[in-house]
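Example with several molecule types.
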Amino acid sequence: MAESEVTVRATAIRVGAAALPYRERALAFMVRRASWHWAEAVPWLLIIAAFFVFPDRMTFGIQVLIAIMFALSLDLILGYAGIVTLGHAVFFGIGAYTVALLSVRFNWGEPISGLLAGTLVAGLCGLALGWLLLRYRGLTLLMLTLATATLLQEFGNYRSDITGGYDGVPGMEIKKLFGVFDNDLYGHTYYIYVGIVLFLVFVFVRRIVYSPFGQALTGIRENIRRMHAIGSPVHRRLVTAYAIAAAIAGTAGALFAQSTAYATLGVFDFDNSAKVMVMLILGGTGRLYGAFVGAVIYMVLEDNLAKASPAFWQFGIGLLLVLTVLFARRGLLGLIESAGEYLKKRRT
Amino acid sequence: MSTSALEVRALNRSFGALRVARDVNLTLEKGARRALIGPNGAGKTTLVNLITGALAPSSGEVLLNGENITALSQAARARRGLARTFQINQLFRGLSVIENICLAIGERDGECNNLWRSAGAKRSVLEEALDHLDALQLGDDALKLVRELPYGRQRLVEIAIALAQRPRVLLLDEPAAGVPSSESHLILDVVASLDPDIAVLIIEHDMDVVFRFARKITVLVAGAVFTEGTPDQIRTNPEVRAVYLGEEAHREARHG
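Resulting structure tokens for the full complex:
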């Protein structure tokens, strides 16, 4: 009885929508597109649930949240603007080192201002590097970003008196959050702290993606030639997006340094740049939540596989990546989306 | 002397030893209806690329409404009212039709500088986009992805984007190319009913279309302006018949 009622109402809505003149339908769709869907609550509920279900795995949970943020920043430029980069770890590293050096050299361990400083410095570096590098595209850009990351890492190694080299910055001390909450051994405080920052960053990125500027980024990804022809200042758009993504990667790096109270030149590793790209491709590019799915799968797999087989754990991730690229080009989220559409089509 | 909508002065461009544009002079008055014809490889599309700034000339000048735009980027020229369509579709294939148009409007009005407002929040932009689509009978397809449309309708989107730029000068590079003749009439109707204030330059191979549409025809051969005149002058010009129409007739004879 209740079920048939629901079906009837659903049909009524569908008929109603079809009866609307196409103009109204198009307008309604465009207006509603950016509004929140109920399903978007799911990842956040899961993040909250994880806090209660795995209270003793919170330090790992923090690293997962940081990885999500890092992947999300890459999604803005790779997934939306179509910028390929193998040097995104540069900005993660700059964020981490800003926090570390502020703490060690200037005895500035206050976390919130440290976080903002890391974000700002990484963003400014993104602005400068983006202005310089984004004249190039494709393979050239890939190699240039890779080279930049390596150069920066080597410079850090050369001045290891400042950076601490591959041994890391010694004696980092991060003060209590708001002067009250300490980073406890189990990471409970920081899980909440990082979770809140992730949510704020996500809302920010989501707004950008659905803004006219975000549309222009997608336009550049879809057809850069036409963007030039319709008068888009393509370089400026790309540099803006790149600087924002760099700032967010810097936020993630700053949180990493604060949560682990440690930073080494290893953060600039090619591995780190490649890892975040693999995460995003696994989850699905250009769809915001791909960063969540990809980062969680990657981190959990890495954690478990590394325990099961310390020598060969990367094989598992490699296999998954190959399968994704072969059979789910749009990532795991894209696969789920396609399955949903298929089922919907079969039902009607 | 009133300023012309578009003026090309002594434009040259070479690719190595190959001179693809030789001292090209071309003037489009306001509201002009000009056809650019010539055999394959005459440099018609190259000329469009030189005018729009996709290619830089070796020497020469391009003036838009009296302003020298030779040093300006392609995008800066577009923002000053110079629009083009492409011989091979250059569309945002993964986006819906209405978004394709909204992008053109957004970049025209500087809306796309906005990072914070939702793209659907400005109703005037959406309404205008729908008006452009309605004018080209694309309204029903507004929410479809461009790549899902048949080729003929994609050609219409190609024109709709250019019109959404509100151009003062419009360069159409074979607008009906690749479209079966059963559908091409729709595109040609659109071209025929363009706003009379826009200066239009059309590259077209179909001589019926050229003679019907153009008030003046420029014949380009081997990168240089061969001759220029009214449709009647061009039709009766024996040299044009020899280099161009003759070739066409020759080809028809061979295939027929």
